[in-house]
Design goal:
Blueprint: H1 24-27, E1 85-91, E2 99-100, E3 106-107, H2 109-121, E4 124-130, H3 135-140, E5 146-152, H4 155-158, E6 161-163, E7 172-177, E8 194-198, H5 202-210, E9 215-219, H6 222-230, E10 236-240, H7 241-249, E11 257-264, H8 267-270, E12 274-279, H9 283-298, H10 301-309
Helix pairs in contact: 2-9, 2-10
Signal peptide: 1-35
Region (Disordered): 35-76
Protein name: Amino acid ABC transporter substrate-binding protein (PAAT family)
Amino acid sequence: MAPSQQAKSFKSVRGLLAGLAAGLCLLAGLPGAQAQAPAKQPPAAPQGTSQATPPVAPQAAPQAVPGFWDPRRRPERPDLSRLTVIRFLTETDYPPFNYTGADGNPAGFNVDLARALCEEIKVTCTVQMRRFETLVDALTSNRGDAIIASMAVSPQLRARVDFTDPYYRVPARFVSRKDAVMPEIRPEYLEGKKVGAIAGSAHEAYLKAMFTDAELHPYPNDDAMRAALRKGEVDFIFGDAISLAFWINGTDSGDCCAFSGGPFVESRFFGEGIGIAVRKGNDVLRQALNWALFRVWEKGRYTDLWLRYFSVSPF
């Protein structure tokens, strides 16, 4: 994927795949990746030093698969007898989440997940591809039953549709050159460091609020920001971890760079997550999908899908 379509309507959470972990509290204690939040009051520097010393990067860790479901909160199996078919709507061109496969049929992470949910619920499933900006109108006019299209949950959309629990999030992360990777990033570690971000983005706002001692360098777009890191004009860049993961693993990066530190998922800046949208009041379908999402995760099918589509984890 070159997934950062952050300017798209309703997709503020994607960058903001342009929402794959709620604020830090939603991930605490859950299986999967651990989210990292910067300390608002950094710990005192060790005696005899003038500032905190960043830790040395360890060897590469295994692929991180995020977990968004708490095994202690197993949902009850809802009454599925009234469900006979689920007509999913998805987007036309947002790889690897939604795209047209070689056989001309819908493909991608969202599409495969939709089919897994239908198998779990044991109902017939159809998937129709439409332009993103038409999806909500198509749902509300009963031309489909559910939208699975990397749609970011937001107060504005909640006024028009209901959402399932999040099935992934779009975290923010730092990227550095490979010779300067840090396993953990805190505000005090970046004092005086040059950090690039997209001008006017939630990532820039987060840096201004939390990393006040870093030297912020705004850029007009992803290409300019990433080029600055490759050239060594900045020490780090900070942005949408999903698009950055694909850039790191793609040819455009020239194998220059890697993630530093862990994911940042504060919902106040980076949104509530990505959910499946259903028509307002359709609790039967919403509850069925929530139950099926938990089951697909519990059986390991979600992990299999994640590893198939994300060779470099954004978490």
